[in-house]
């Protein structure tokens, strides 16, 4: 009886030890668990910014950002990407913690991000800002001077909000009033429709055009390119570690190929209805 008890105890201890070893694996260990030589990376995307990223009717991440990552995957037989829709408010934390390995969700560069994260050298989208206003307005246009004295609804901490704040500081005599809002473009457009705001400046014209068309607002609202003097250039985003450095080289080499062979242009025209592929 004692012998059976000892054997049982040893067996349980062995199982616990085995479980602990499994739990102690690093993120890099887990990526090559099948011994096939294929490294698996998890791609995080917001899934709520069409046509760049969305969750399709099958419940799968889709859109231009995902199509680009799949094209990169196709060029690299020793790499496999898994895709995970991750809310914008938690996507950077997911990258830092190792839950995901790369963000493909229209990330632009700024000083804070460059200090914390790793950017590839080559972007995958170049587009422009847009200004959205009621069609019957004749006092608003693509000219930046037309926003003087107007109320502009803009997302708190968004790229165009930062631009507006800097513009107001540099041009106090031509400043606009900023109405701060969350990042929901539909809500911001409603502020324009109901007259509480004169206009909305969208970071990416492609997205504004898409939302207007999908929600049937293109008969009521005008969407024009807005000359901020700066194109919106977007990149994949990586961790500043060894895994991130490896993935950065894969992405840079692949994007160079996709730009040179015209694939990135084709994907842009398919998903975005225009050529927004960067030039080398």
Kindly summarize this structure in a few lines:
This protein has 280 residues and is α/β, with parallel strands linked by helices.
Explained architecture:
- The structure is a single chain.
- With 280 residues, the protein is of the alpha/beta class.
- It folds into two domains: 27-126 and 234-272, D-Maltodextrin-Binding Protein, domain 2, CATH 3.40.190; 129-225, Periplasmic binding protein-like II (D-Maltodextrin-Binding Protein, domain 2, 3-Layer(aba) Sandwich), CATH 3.40.190.
- Helix content is 41%, strand content 22%.
- It has ten helices and 13 strands.
- Strands 5-1-6-13-7 form a five-stranded mixed sheet, sandwiched between helices. The protein has a five-stranded mixed sheet with strand order 10-9-11-8-12, sandwiched between helices.
- Helix 6 links the parallel strand 9 (151-155) and strand 10.
- Helix 3 packs antiparallel against helix 10 (263-272).
- Residues 1-30 have low confidence and may be disordered.
Alpha-carbon Rg, integer: 24 Å
Shape: elongated
Q: What is the structural class?
A: alpha/beta
**Percentage of β-strand residues:** 15-25%
- Which strand order do you get reading across the main beta sheet? 5-1-6-13-7
CATH topology of the largest domain: D-Maltodextrin-Binding Protein, domain 2
Number of strands: 13
User: What is the average of the pLDDT values?
Assistant: 86
Q: What is the count of structural domains? A: 2
Count up the helices.
10
SSE layout and pairings?
Layout: H1 2-23, H2 27-31, E1 39-45, E2 48-49, E3 53-55, E4 61-62, H3 64-75, E5 79-85, H4 88-97, E6 102-108, H5 111-116, E7 125-127, E8 130-134, E9 151-155, H6 159-170, E10 177-181, H7 185-193, E11 199-202, H8 205-214, E12 221-225, E13 232-238, H9 242-260, H10 263-272
Parallel strand pairs: 1-5, 1-6, 9-10, 9-11
Antiparallel strand pairs: 2-3, 3-4, 6-13, 7-13, 8-11, 8-12
